[in-house]
Amino acid sequence: MMRRYLGAAERAAYERLSPRARGPWLLGRIAAKDALRQLLWDGGAGPVFPAEVPVGNDPAGRPLALGPLTAGFGLTIAHKDRIAVALARPGRAVGIDLEPVAADPDALVRVALGPGELALAEALAGTPSGAWGARGAGGLPAALTALWCAKEAAAKADGSGLGGRPREWRVSADPDGDPFSGDGCLLVRSPGGRPYPVRTTLLDSSPPGHVVAWTCDGTPPDVPFHLTETRHGK
C-alpha cells in the first residue's frame, strides 16, 4: 500500500515518523490522494496514479497539494481511530474534521459551545427525521459533536485554527440549507464574522460512531465526491 501511494520524497517523510504516527499519516495521505485524483477524473483526466499527486505540508504544517496536476487545489485531512477523511477542491481553501461521538457531552458544552448552541444541538437531536434524531443516529451527544466538528472544519478553512477560542466560533442553522434534514447543514461564523457553510454526517462505524464535518458552498450532494474516507483495520 505504501509503495503504491507514496513517491520517494513521501516515503522518506514516512520513514522519519515515529512508528505510532506512521499509520494515521499514511491513512491521511491515501484519503488525500484519492480525493485529489477524483477531482482530476471528474475534470476529464485520464489515468492518474497516486504517486503523481504528491502531498506535502506548508510551513504551518497544513496539508498541501504539490505537483503540476493539482497546483492550486485546496486540501484538508483529518484522521482518528484508524479512519481518515480528506476534502479537496480546486482554487478554494477547505476544511474537514473527524471526531468520535463525545463520551462526555457536558464537558463539550462547557468548553466549546457558546450561547444558543446547546439549544441548536437539542433541536437537531429532537428531530426524528434529522441527521441526529433518527434512530441509531447518536442523539444529543452526536449533535453536540457535530457542532464541535463544524467549528474545527471552519477554522481549518479559515487557516487560523480555533486558537483556543472555540466558543467565539458561532454555529447556527444554515439559512440556505436544512439542518433538520439528513444533510446536517450548519453555518459557522469566525470571531471576525466570516461565514462558513458546513455539512455534517455520522459515519456508519461501530459505536459510538464518528462525526465528519466539512466546509461547502452552494448545495452539494449529501457526501460530495471530493470527500474521501479511508479506513484501516476493524
Describe the structure concisely.
The chain has six helices and ten strands. It is of the alpha+beta class.
Brief descriptors of the model:
globular, Ribosomal Protein L22, Chain A, 234 residues, three-stranded antiparallel beta sheet, single chain, 10 strands, 32% helix, five-stranded antiparallel beta sheet, alpha+beta
Structure write-up:
- It is a single chain.
- This protein is an alpha+beta fold.
- The protein has 2 domains: 2-88, 4'-phosphopantetheinyl transferase domain (Ribosomal Protein L22, Chain A), CATH 3.90.470.20; 96-216, Alpha-Beta Complex (Ribosomal Protein L22, Chain A).
- It is 32% helix and 24% strand.
- The protein has 6 helices and 10 strands.
- The strands form 3 sheets. Strands 5-9-8-7-6 form a 5-stranded antiparallel β-sheet, with helices on one face.
- Helix 5 (117-125) packs across helix 6.
- The longest helix has 24 residues, at 19-42.
- The protein is globular.
- The model is unreliable at 219-226 (pLDDT under 50).
Element layout with pairings:
Layout lengths: L1 H4 L2 H9 L2 H24 L12 E3 L5 E3 L7 E8 L2 E8 L5 E5 L4 H8 L4 H9 L13 H20 L11 E4 L11 E5 L5 E9 L6 E6 L11 E5 L3
Antiparallel strand pairs: 1-2, 3-4, 4-10, 5-9, 6-7, 7-8, 8-9
The amount of beta strand, in percent, is 15-25%
Radius of gyration: 18 Å
Number of helices: 6
What average pLDDT do the residues reach? 86
Q: Bin the helical content.
A: 25-40%
The helix-and-strand class reads alpha+beta
H-E order? HHHEEEEEHHHEEEEE
Stretches where pLDDT falls below 50 for ≥5 residues? 219-226
- According to DSSP, the number of beta strands is 10
Number of domains: 2
